[in-house]
Design brief:
7-stranded mixed sheet; 5-stranded mixed sheet; elongated
């Protein structure tokens, strides 16, 4: 970014002295530090107080120190600047002016509030005699002026539609002095409609204002069982603080959760949750929810303290170690060697993994063909009863039409296609079709091939069926894990799939694996990780906090200022 900075100094006899410097840098930093591109020597300025960057959306100024900046009189932490804007940085005034050709930015810098004589100021404040001329009249006038501008006018603009209509075209709205800071990015689209949240003057934002849009926000715990824990008299605004600019309005501090969960067993003696205070030093071992009996669908939470002892009975037979090796059969067919990403594909957004299907991931190797003489014939996956009917219909059709090239088949089945079927041979042809279909259904194909991956049941009549697999969508429903945030980590660093020789292994890493990178809230050598990084506070299974609000659609008109 090419920038021209003009330092202006007022002369005692009037006029200005101007000193121009040209700067070429990606970031133009402002401050009292010796390495600052825009050097402000006043001792009231921090070493670093702001920076200017050229971004795709324009040129932006951002506060980086404890000193607030004001853009055109309004406090801000970051904002886009353009010619004509005025930025106040402590005692300095920075004006954005039209830049010359080839320059990205031109600014003027002037010290408008110089540091006075401390001794003179101390003497002025230490007067003991009464002044000859009283200033009470001016004090009252200023008091009335401030009362009108900063109190009466904002209240009138809030409560009276007539005043709102007049002031809405003003460059600075009457409520600007009352703003404590910028509104968050999530609520920017209705930042000019104060009544969307502040429905009553001089009262805190009520829950009803929040649930006008967030009606389906859920409880934290079972309200029927833990009434005090689920509600506890908390209000939305007591946890979610607005007007903090780009700072998120969701509490991330660890103590917010740990205050209750550090001794949860004392608060709720019958709870199944364990105590927790800090991920790095005081967090229980992971306990995934796994299917322990696929027939009944029974699920249990099992600790990964000994990962080898955690077994799952999902009804699917899939040993990872076999599939992660290139078998001779696969090599002969010219198939590529399988990797984790061959089957596990991130869903849109990258948080979880998309479901695995036979058609997309298994069919290339495991084709559902049942007749070697007609290799083009196959059956659909996932429909056992329909598969059996398809096989029976196929052989019945072949027997009646003829032309089946198999030396073991009777002559009537091998006759030329379309030739008449003798009436006395019809029963023989159909008997062969039934036998061949039964052989395919119960022998080489049928339950034998389905049973290669699935659990197959059979009744007394010989009719078989496939038990529906029970694969949980999430092994850890009480936690959050974003695969997209870990895309630079190899799958094998967390999931020991190549060493798994049993389809019952739950290939989740224990907590020690996560602690190799993640520490507690105050960790310095690792990624500081608080509770909300992996857990939601509002849990949907516990139902909405305000059921009546959840039934109606969000009031977007009220929240958009229309």
């Amino acid at each position: 970014m090419d920038c021209v900075v003009s330092y202006l100094t007022r002369k005692s006899r009037g006029g200005y002295a101007q000193r121009d410097i040209e700067i070429t840098a990606d970031v133009v930093d402002i401050g009292r530090g010796a390495d600052s591109k825009v050097f402000l020597e006043d001792p009231r300025i921090p070493l670093q107080c702001a920076k200017i960057t050229n971004q795709p959306g324009g040129i932006f100024i951002e506060s980086v120190g404890p000193l607030d900046i004001r853009l055109n009189g309004a406090p801000t932490t970051t904002a886009r600047i353009k010619p004509g804007d005025q930025v106040a940085v402590g005692p300095y005034e920075i004006n954005v002016v039209e830049s010359s050709a080839g320059k990205d930015l031109a600014i003027t810098v002037e010290l408008v509030r110089p540091l006075g004589d401390d001794l003179a100021q101390l003497a002025a404040r230490s007067r003991t005699e009464m002044p000859k001329n009283t200033k009470r009249r001016w004090s009252w006038l200023l008091f009335l002026l401030f009362g009108i501008v900063f109190l009466a006018l904002p209240v009138a603009a809030f409560m009276l539609p007539q005043v709102q209509e007049v002031t809405k075209t003003w460059p600075v709205t009457p409520d600007r002095p009352w703003l404590s800071g910028e509104i968050s990015g999530n609520h920017k689209f209705f930042e000019n409609d104060c009544k969307a949240c502040h429905q009553k003057p001089f009262e805190q934002v009520t829950d009803q204002a929040c649930v006008a849009c967030h009606g389906r926000i859920a409880h934290h715990a079972d309200a029927a069982r833990y009434e005090k824990i689920a509600d506890a008299g908390q209000k939305c605004q007591s946890c979610h603080k607005e007007h903090n600019g780009k700072a998120q309005i969701i509490l991330t501090e660890q103590h917010f959760c740990a205050d209750c969960h550090v001794n949860l067993d004392q608060r709720l003696t019958d709870t199944g949750f364990q105590n927790v205070a800090d991920f790095g030093s005081n967090h229980p071992q992971f306990r995934p929810t796994v299917v322990v009996a696929h027939a009944s669908g029974e699920m249990k939470r099992l600790s990964l303290e000994d990962p080898a002892a955690v077994k799952e009975d999902s009804g699917i037979r899939y040993p990872h170690d076999v599939h992660l090796k290139r078998t001779p059969a696969a090599a002969w067919k010219g198939l590529d060697e399988l990797t984790c990403s061959s089957c596990h594909v991130p869903e849109p957004g990258g948080v979880g993994m998309a479901p695995i299907s036979q058609e997309a991931h298994c069919q290339e190797c495991h084709q559902l063909r049942f007749e070697p003489k007609r290799p083009e014939r196959s059956v659909p996956h996932g429909k056992p009863k329909e598969v059996q009917l398809i096989i029976k219909d196929f052989y019945a059709k072949v027997a009646l039409e003829g032309g089946f090239d198999d030396p073991d088949a009777p002559a009537v089945v091998r006759r030329r296609v379309g030739s008449p079927l003798p009436a006395d041979a019809r029963e023989d042809a159909l008997a062969w079709a039934d036998a061949r279909a039964k052989e395919a259904i119960t022998g080489a194909f049928g339950k034998s091939l389905c049973g290669y991956c699935h659990v197959v049941t059979e009744d007394a009549s010989g009719t078989w069926d496939v038990v529906k697999p029970r694969i949980p969508d999430r092994w850890m429903p009480h936690g959050i894990f974003d695969h997209g945030a870990h895309q630079d980590v190899e799958c094998a660093d967390c999931h020991q799939a190549e060493a798994s020789k049993s389809n019952k292994d739950v290939l989740l890493p224990p907590i020690a694996t996560c602690r190799e990178c993640h520490g507690g809230e105050k960790a310095t050598a690792k990624i500081p990780s608080t509770c909300v990084m992996c857990h939601d506070f509002h849990n949907e299974p516990f139902g909405p906090m305000y059921p009546e609000a959840a039934k109606r659609k969000p009031n977007m008109a009220a929240s958009s200022g229309n």
